[in-house]
């Protein structure tokens, strides 16, 4: 099981143009522009849009008004309108990299990724050395499957903004995908040092530490991840798996129970809790969990095999044999070996 919800964390530069308004702009349109700015700062976006629109009506070449109105449309998630305003601003002022960046953001939200990539690249080629724009392009490259280009851009973000925890995190994620484990762990560690509440960094680092066999360090990271984000169901589940391996069965049961509470149809969490209950001799409780796991995944031979073993422990030999036969039918070699040793057959499918 794997959880990774933060694939993209691009930040658009929503800069409000207040100065250097064109000399040809009329006093009336400038007054409307100032009213729009005030409304925007007050959070009254609809009035702000109205004022920008009136300013544009008086002066159709007022590119700053198009730009600011486009930013408001971004805030309101009206991306097509934002694209239209940014495109008009570019036609009037083609030398401002911020406009290309923000249009790229809107295009991406519309699913027009290639056009967005062109805009981000245009902004960068214009000399805009902004960490935000490289972050936008990096995450878009990642989305498009160009991991090499994404890695370069995330590294550029780090060069421009060494305190950007997310850039380290995303670079670490890509390095982990490339099996650059040590480098990925270093990046996650740096992300955590910059943002001690970065739950996903703890979560991802824990997975790598677990693969390396450092169970105690991985457990510590999963615990921290769940302290920050108590809704991270997979982190609770993975904690249970590690605690089970460490034979800390009571603690594992608690972790699996939380995982089940967060996702009641998680068959593997029921199996994990059942195994721990059985290890503690609590076979009737284990049988209930194995039964629920079987309801969720009826073709799992291990669930029948383990439930059968618990039935045997409580003296229900008939149910034990029925489960072993079902496990054998589904392909369990352990069940087949036992039944053969007793001269017992099983149905074939």
Q: Could you explain how this protein is built, in words?
A:
It is a single chain. This protein is an all-alpha fold. It folds into 2 domains: 27-256, Serine Threonine Protein Phosphatase 5, Tetratricopeptide repeat (Alpha Horseshoe); 265-349, Tetratricopeptide repeat domain (Serine Threonine Protein Phosphatase 5, Tetratricopeptide repeat), CATH 1.25.40.10. 72% of the residues lie in helices and 0% in strands. It contains 19 helices and no strands.
Structural topology:
Elements lengths: L26 H15 L3 H14 L4 H13 L3 H14 L4 H13 L3 H13 L5 H14 L2 H14 L4 H13 L3 H14 L4 H13 L3 H14 L4 H13 L3 H14 L4 H13 L3 H14 L4 H13 L3 H13 L3 H9 L8
Helix pairs in contact: 1-2, 2-3, 3-4, 3-5, 4-5, 5-6, 6-7, 7-8, 8-9, 9-10, 10-11, 11-12, 12-13, 13-14, 13-15, 14-15, 15-16, 16-17, 17-18, 18-19
Q: Could you write a compact summary of the structure shown?
A:
The protein is built from 19 helices and no strands. The chain has helices spanning 27-41, 45-58, 63-75, 79-92, 97-109, 113-125, 131-144, 147-160, 165-177, 181-194, 199-211, 215-228, 233-245, 249-262, 267-279, 283-296, 301-313, 317-329, 333-341.
Strand content: under 5%
CATH architecture of the largest domain: Alpha Horseshoe
Secondary structural class: mainly alpha
The helix tally amounts to: 19
Task: Throw out a few tags for this protein.
mainly alpha; 72% helix; disordered N terminus; elongated; Serine Threonine Protein Phosphatase 5, Tetratricopeptide repeat; 349 residues
């Amino acid at each position: 099981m794997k959880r990774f919800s933060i694939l993209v964390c691009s930040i658009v530069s929503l800069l409000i143009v207040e100065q250097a308004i064109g000399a040809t702009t009329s006093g009336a349109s400038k007054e409307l522009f100032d009213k729009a700015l005030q409304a925007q700062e007050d959070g009254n976006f609809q009035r702000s849009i109205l004022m920008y629109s009136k300013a544009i009506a008086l002066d159709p070449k007022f590119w700053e008004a198009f730009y600011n109105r486009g930013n408001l449309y971004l805030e309101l998630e009206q991306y097509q309108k934002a694209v239209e305003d940014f495109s008009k601003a570019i036609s009037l002022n083609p030398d401002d990299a911020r406009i290309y960046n923000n249009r790229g953001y809107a295009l991406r939200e519309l699913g027009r990724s290639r056009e967005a990539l062109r805009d981000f690249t245009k902004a960068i080629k214009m000399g805009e050395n902004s960490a935000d724009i490289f972050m936008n392009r990096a995450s878009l490259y990642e989305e498009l499957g160009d991991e090499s280009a994404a890695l370069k851009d995330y590294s550029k973000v780090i060069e421009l903004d060494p305190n950007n925890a997310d850039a380290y995190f995303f670079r670490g994620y890509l390095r982990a995908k490339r099996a650059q484990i040590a480098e990925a762990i270093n990046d996650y560690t740096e992300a955590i040092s910059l943002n001690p509440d970065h739950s996903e960094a703890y979560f991802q680092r824990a997975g790598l530490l677990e693969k390396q066999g450092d169970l105690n360090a991985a457990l510590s990271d999963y615990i921290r991840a769940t302290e920050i984000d108590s809704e991270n169901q997979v982190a609770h589940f993975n904690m249970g798996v590690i605690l089970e391996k460490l034979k800390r069965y009571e603690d594992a049961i608690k972790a699996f129970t939380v995982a089940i509470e967060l996702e009641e149809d998680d068959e593997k969490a029921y199996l994990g809790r059942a195994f721990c209950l059985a290890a503690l001799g609590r076979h009737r409780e284990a049988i209930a969990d194995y039964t629920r796991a079987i309801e969720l995944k009826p073709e799992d031979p291990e669930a029948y095999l383990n439930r059968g073993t618990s039935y045997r422990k409580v003296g229900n030999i008939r149910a034990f044999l029925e489960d072993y036969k079902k496990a054998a039918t589904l392909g369990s070699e352990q069940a087949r070996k036992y039944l053969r040793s007793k001269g017992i057959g099983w149905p074939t499918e």
